[in-house]
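Milestone 3.1: sequence recovery, worked example.
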């Protein structure tokens, strides 16, 4: 009996099924109230279900929206399919590996203290081992930990190229990168693994940064932290002692890296301007004697001409 009563009540609220037609005015008003109550309850229930499903898939919806907008943009400008496929691969890998497209969007909502705590757990063990930062103020390193940004590189992507002006330092969080060199620029010199750091000298190099000396390519998918030179300069304004120490270290490291291996050059190389031959000693003695005697002959004129030539060369 109770189940039957509950069934009739639910059927009445959601206005489903053949209900008895009202006869009297009271029955009509009562049935209208039941209809309105059922519609309201049904709309509230459907709205809550929509909110739950929408919240559960909000990230996926944002990711799909970004990818669709990017694809539409590339199709509009007729970007080659090879480039479009790499862009799609980057979106898919970044989303599946991190669960987000940009970590800074998540951390920017947190207070500075919480962001610092997260950055210390993630980056401190790596940054503190960088030779360039050894001996610097500990608080300066803490301030610097909040600045790096995370970037994902696809296989065979160039992280930096030879001859470029270096303005960033790279910290490998995951994956591997290869340093290429040799005559063709494709010989693998070394493979850097997670925890390795490269490009740190570029942060403090004067004159806009030193040029890269080799190509660095991602070996597979690689996730790198990048620290910009501008961010470091904003931090060093408040730490003068650390700034002096870093400048001194950077000059020393640049001097060691830029020191020429052979200043004299190979022995077989021809000289563009050959050195001037020395004057024979006997001829010099004759000129000196002519000068002491005050002669006006050919030797004296030649000696005077030789002085003019030396003055012009000087």
């Amino acid at each position: 009996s109770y189940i039957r009563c509950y069934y009739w009540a639910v059927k009445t609220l959601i206005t489903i099924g053949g209900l008895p037609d009202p006869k009297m005015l009271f029955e009509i008003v009562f049935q209208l109230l039941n209809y309105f109550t059922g519609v309201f309850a049904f709309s509230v229930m459907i709205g809550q279900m929509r909110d739950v499903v929408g919240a559960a898939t909000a990230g996926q919806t944002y990711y799909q929206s970004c990818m669709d907008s990017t694809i539409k943009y590339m199709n509009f400008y007729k970007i080659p399919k090879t480039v479009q496929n790499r862009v799609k691969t980057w979106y898919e890998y970044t989303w599946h590996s991190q669960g987000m497209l940009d970590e800074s969007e998540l951390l920017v909502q947190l207070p500075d203290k919480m962001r610092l705590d997260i950055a210390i757990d993630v980056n401190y063990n790596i940054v503190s081992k960088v030779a360039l930062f050894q001996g610097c103020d500990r608080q300066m390193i803490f301030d610097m930990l909040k600045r790096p940004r995370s970037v994902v590189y696809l296989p065979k992507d160039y992280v930096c190229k030879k001859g470029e002006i270096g303005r960033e330092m790279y910290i490998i969080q995951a994956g591997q990168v290869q340093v290429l060199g040799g005559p063709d620029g494709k010989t693998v010199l070394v493979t850097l693994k997670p925890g390795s750091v490269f490009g740190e000298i570029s942060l403090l190099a004067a004159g806009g940064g030193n040029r890269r000396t080799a190509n660095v390519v991602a070996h597979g998918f690689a996730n790198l932290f990048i620290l910009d030179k501008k961010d470091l300069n904003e931090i060093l304004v408040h730490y003068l002692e650390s700034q002096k120490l870093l400048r001194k270290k950077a000059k020393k490291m640049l001097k060691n890296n830029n020191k020429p291996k052979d200043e004299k050059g190979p022995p077989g190389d021809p000289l563009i301007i050959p050195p001037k031959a020395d004057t024979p000693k006997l001829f010099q003695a004759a000129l000196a004697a002519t000068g002491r005697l005050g002669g006006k002959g050919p030797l004296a004129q030649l000696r005077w001409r030789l002085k003019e030539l030396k003055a012009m060369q000087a």
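The longest helix spans residues 25-56. The longest strand covers residues 168-181.
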